[in-house]
């Protein structure tokens, strides 16, 4: 019983340290006692430099509903019966620079899979920024990198950005796993 009394006593003590909230009873949903701290440039935490943005192929959306694709594990996808493509809308920070793209895949077939990184302008035009192909048929997970020439600055007011994964080969021998954008702050 003494323990319960001590706990209630502690709770009551903690509640007595709360400022008197009964001062503003006219409109109890208005906070009048808050004074915000002024912004201080020296205290702002911001990032500057290079960074990566990973895009898993498994998070993409099939473009044609009749395409039959399957999850192959490890974030990878493949097409089962008919080759096709999937797309991911990418929301990028405005003004940041896109330097290059790395494509992750498993290629065990003579055919290739591809990624296409493109922008769609507000007037309906598509402009491919980069296309990367899987290389060889080693049957192992690997990647290929290419730089954008010239580098591209994100302009969300005029463009939407999309990563397209596509292949002409079906089965587990051709798996599309993901892409990584290499970017930098303005």
Model description:
- It contains 1 helix and 11 strands.
- The protein starts with a helix and ends with a strand.
- 8% of the residues lie in helices and 46% in strands.
- It has one helix at 2-16; strands at residues 50-56, 61-62, 69-73, 76-79, 85-90, 97-107, 113-121, 126-133, 141-153, 159-167, 174-184.
- It is mainly beta.
- It is elongated and about 60 Å long.
- Strand 3 and strand 4 form a beta hairpin.
Q: Short summary of the structure?
A:
The chain is mainly β. It contains one helix and eleven strands, in the order αβββββββββββ.
What average pLDDT do the residues reach? 79
Q: Please state roughly what percent of the residues sit in beta strands, choosing from under 5%, 5-15%, 15-25%, 25-35%, 35-45% or over 45%.
A: over 45%
Specify the structural class: mainly beta
The H/E string reads HEEEEEEEEEEE
The rounded Rg comes to 27 Å
- CATH-level-2 architecture: Sandwich
| Alpha carbon gap, first and last residue | 64 Å
The CATH topology is given as: Jelly Rolls
For the largest beta-sheet, the strand count, sense and barrel status come to: 5 strands, antiparallel
Q: Tell me the overall shape.
A: elongated
Q: How many DSSP H or I helices?
A: 1
Total count of domains: 1
Count of DSSP strands: 11
Poorly predicted ranges: 1-18
Give the class-level CATH name: Mainly Beta
Give the strand order of the largest sheet, numbering strands 1, 2, ... along the chain: 2-5-10-7-8
Question: What is the share of helical residues?
Answer: under 10%
**CATH homologous superfamily caption:** Galactose-binding domain-like
């Amino acid at each position: 019983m003494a323990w319960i009394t001590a706990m209630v006593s502690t709770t009551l003590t903690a509640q007595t340290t709360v400022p008197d909230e009964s001062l503003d009873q006219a409109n109890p949903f208005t906070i009048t006692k808050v004074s915000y701290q002024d912004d201080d440039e020296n205290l702002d935490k911001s990032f500057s430099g290079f960074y990566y943005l990973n895009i898993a192929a498994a998070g993409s959306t099939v473009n044609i509903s009749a395409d039959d694709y399957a999850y192959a594990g490890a974030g990878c996808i493949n097409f089962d019966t008919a080759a096709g493509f999937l797309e991911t809308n990418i929301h990028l920070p405005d003004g940041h620079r896109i330097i290059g793209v790395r494509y992750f895949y498993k290629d065990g077939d003579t055919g290739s899979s591809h990624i296409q990184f493109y922008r769609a302008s507000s007037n309906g035009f598509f402009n491919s920024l980069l296309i990367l192909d899987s290389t060889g048929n080693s049957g192992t997970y690997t990647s290929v990198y290419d730089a954008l020439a010239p580098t591209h600055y994100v302009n969300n007011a005029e463009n939407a950005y999309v990563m397209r994964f596509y292949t002409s080969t079906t089965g587990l021998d051709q798996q599309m796993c993901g892409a990584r954008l290499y970017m930098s702050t303005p």
